[in-house]
Design brief:
The complex is a heterotrimer. By secondary structure, chain A is an all-alpha fold. Helices cover 72% and strands 0% of the residues of chain A. Chain A has one domain (2-222): Orthogonal Bundle (MetI-like fold). The radius of gyration of chain A is 22 Å and the shape is elongated. Classes of the chains: A mainly alpha, B mainly alpha, C alpha/beta. Chains A and C meet through α6 and α7 of A and α2, α4 and α6 of C. Chain B: Keywords: Membrane, Transmembrane, Transmembrane helix, Transport.
Amino acid sequence: MNLILAYLTDPAHWQGSGGIPARVLEHLIYTLVTLLVAAAIGVPLGLWVGHTGRGRWAVVNLVNGMRSVPTLGLLFVAVLVLGPRIRGDLAFVVPSILVLVVLAVPPILAGAYAGVDAVDPLARDAAKAMGMSSREVLFGVELPCALPLLFGGLRSAALQVVATATIAAAVSVGGLGRLLIDGQAVRDYGQMAAGAVLVAALALAVDLVFALVQRVAISPGLVPARRRPIDRKNPTPANPVA
Amino acid sequence: MTWFLDHLAQVGGLLVTHAYLAVVPLVVGLALAVPLGWLATRFPRLYTPLITASGLLYTIPSLALFVLMPLVLGLGILNPLNVIVALTLYTVALLVRTVADGLSSVPEQVRQAATAMGIGPVRRFVTVELPLAVPVIAAGLRVAAVSNVSIVSVAALIGIAQLGSLFTDGFARDFLDPIVVGIVACIVLALILDLAIVALARAVTPWLRGGRAG
Amino acid sequence: MIRFSDVRKTYPDGTVAVDGLTLEAPTGQITVLVGPSGCGKTTSLRMINKMIEPTSGSITVDGRDISGMNADELRRGMGYVIQSGGLFPHRTVLDNIATVPLLLGVPKTQARASAMELLERMGLSTSLAKRYPNQLSGGQQQRVGVARALAADPPIMLMDEPFSAVDPQVREQLQDEFLRLQGELGKTIVFVTHDIDEAVKLGDQVAVLRVGGTLAQLASPERLLADPADDFVADFLGRDRGYRGLAFAPGGSVPIGTEPTVVLGTSSDAARSVASGAAWLLIVDEAGAPVGWVEPARLGARVERSDLHRGGTVARASGSLRAALDAALSAPSRRGVLTDDAGRLIGTVSAHDVLAAIEGAGGSADGTPASSNGDGAP
């Protein structure tokens, strides 16, 4: 404990390009870039699969299959194979981001697909029968109704990316993982543990941000039957909605 | 391929360790998650705190948890027990929710019928509710097993030997073969565990087999 | 007018859903398609708005063949109501109702204002406007579903089992409101149900379909009950057909007797003297509405609410013979209570007089002589 506090309270560790704020920023940039790219691929693809019903089988298997691929191994292969073809610092960053994207797409894709798939068929049917075009059904009904599960997918992708970006420090990219990997190299347990605490805090913070965004973005009508404030004196709700 | 054949014994040894590090947490985690999941369904007041706590636990990146474990357990950083405990935590975090959902998926009529026949709560749990929740729990267990295999390899970064060591060694020597072999071995191990769980779940739920009807 | 001409629908797996259907749904009337599951009633309905394309045959709306029309435009001109509403969970009640007007390009404020009016018209509180569907009861959702279909004031309404997902009491209420609304709006309605009682109650004409998608009989409800075309239709109509057919026989011809009454709260001595020895005495409230029967011999000091026998149903004098007969059969005095449309007592009828009226009308097609075995509710 004291080792962690000692590391975190040393002002020297909060300055410069290797300082904690810079590392946090790097970590956030990797995460954000990855999520944007992964969402740009996964969301339209997932919506398309959900809307047309084509390729469901592929989605389910892709998600399950990707889970069994060890991320660390994938990261090393990407850097060894792609690194030499890219010049400068990007030799490590680009392959790493690529692997992060590959990991982040399946949960986002699955979330978007499952979200559209879970839309009440009666609502979809009614939308069509009222004369909505295929586009209007997708953007007016299916997408907004898919948001809860779509956000679920984005959220787990974000956590996955934060965790894997930490590991990516092993292939010489920046981010908070540096504290852990560099600490390991010089047997500085204080630095490693401080890095671990910071990474955990960052993950929790990212999750919290997602929870807040979700609350604003999702229609209250899609939140499962809100629990009424329980009357302490009379715990059985007086007149439950049938 | 030649590298693989030359290092068969080494890969085999790492595979066994890897399997051990992945499976022990799975078994211990399941054993802990069942009573916790039961508590969460039995006492609705406990549901939200238990689910929230396991959710938070699950957000902690694996490398961070591996590094922090020695601090919590007071063990040396190279002790494999750190990895086992960390993975057990993940497994419990994942399965508490699954077990709770599985138990609450048991139809209320079945529960009441069992009670009406005079089956006590403990006996009812073991003989009626738990068996009926098996399919849901097995689905969660499959996810946990496959993720455990992948996460164990990360422990190579803090120096704990298993298939992940093939990644770090290969990378350090700029040599692809061991990395590819390691990846394939990990996938094969995950697949075997997955199939084993499916087979086990099938074996204990004979009522779900046969007849296409329903 | 919607016209089916020899319409057939065959699915790729060989199932024949609709087979040679020829049918007219007249403008301004309710045509009910009824039949067991697998009779193609929903398929037929969904072919009208091109949700399903017929394999052969043609469907015309006001003389225009729909096969050449743009599906989305066609649909926007037809209200569509389905079981449990099919409401959009992510939109408020008001925005659900305003859906089609907004699709048609009506300005938002205007669409919402008319949605608000419709909400009231459907008997829903305007306080529900900002709620979401999952905060409504089943009956409320169903009403919003109807309001949504009516929002663009389409001349045609297609309704697929719109009232089957709610409990019987609410269903009856929704049916009554629906008929009242149709009285005001006069839409051309095609209504699908599996419930023959609902078909008979709501339809201006009823089409009974049999499994395999063929039309077994197309007739007015009276005609259907009086003269089923074959065994299938007769079976499907079920028992008590004669009694149910009385629902379509006007009750005006039955002689109405005056009934001595006292007001609730009258002293029992006064009540006994009014009853002058009769076993049962009718009690009314201050407004003259009947509230129940009492036995004068068993009264305490005054006529109290607790003394009332509530077995008797009350029929409107302008209602059907069925209601009058039920009122007579259900009253402990065997005298059926009749009221005017405002609910005030007019007098009573005896079962004997009602039966005499039925036999007097026996030569007409309406209703066969009653062989009642107790279809309780009027």
